[in-house]
Amino acid sequence: MSVPGVAAADPQADPPPPTVPNVNAYPPVKTSEYAVMDNNWYAFSIGEGITCVLQRTGSYGCSGPIPAAPNGANLVSGGPGVPGFASSPAPVFAVVGDAKPLPPNTRLSYQTISCGFDGVTTACIDGRNQAGFVISPTGSFVIGQQESDFKPTFQIG
């Protein structure tokens, strides 16, 4: 039933899920050029003060001033299972020093982990479970509850 002179509003639709970049669409960089910590980690930098690492153990993450992170977190990390955001007193991965920047539209991969950077957004995905995370000025978030339609590939060397 409608009432004259009263407009009815449609219920707000849920916003679409955030876009997860397909990091494997980017060409890989040479992993060995990013080796740090006695070749136990592969590290790269993105933006101002953010360092990301892929560890030979299968752990991976980024630390620093993560834009639009939940609760102001400055660390996102994963391994087996879905990654999570946390806060630490200092950037955890700053221990690598001046990490080499990852050029836009490239990816760094080790074993089942691939991290790609398009010049603005960074995404890291674990091919074992399709979990990972996205760092973006419009919103940083964890992947794991939403489906992904791509499988990471890797390059060693």
State the gist of this model.
The protein is an all-beta fold and 157 residues long. It has one domain (30-143). It contains no helices and eleven strands.
Account of the protein in words:
- Residues 1-12 have a biased composition (Low complexity).
- The structure is a single chain.
- The protein has 157 residues and is mainly beta.
- It has one domain.
- It contains no helices and 11 strands.
- The strands form 2 sheets. The protein has a 6-stranded antiparallel beta sheet, with no helix packed on it. The chain has a 5-stranded antiparallel beta sheet with strand order 7-8-9-10-11, with no helix packed on it.
- The protein is globular and about 50 Å long.
- 34% of the residues are buried.
**Beta-sheet strand percentage?**
25-35%
**What level of helicity do the residues show?**
under 10%
Biggest sheet: strands side by side, in what order?
A: 1-2-3-4-5-6
Count the E strands: 11
Mean pLDDT over all positions: 85
Structural domain count: 1
| Overall spatial form | globular
Instruction: Summarize the main sheet.
Output: 6 strands, antiparallel
Radius of gyration: 18 Å
Secondary-structure-based class equals mainly beta
Instruction: Tally the helices.
Output: 0
What string gives the helices and strands in order? EEEEEEEEEEE
Query: Spans of 5+ residues with little confidence (pLDDT < 50)?
Result: 146-157
- The end-to-end distance, rounded to whole angstroms, is 69 Å
Biased composition (Low complexity): 1-12
Region (Disordered): 1-23
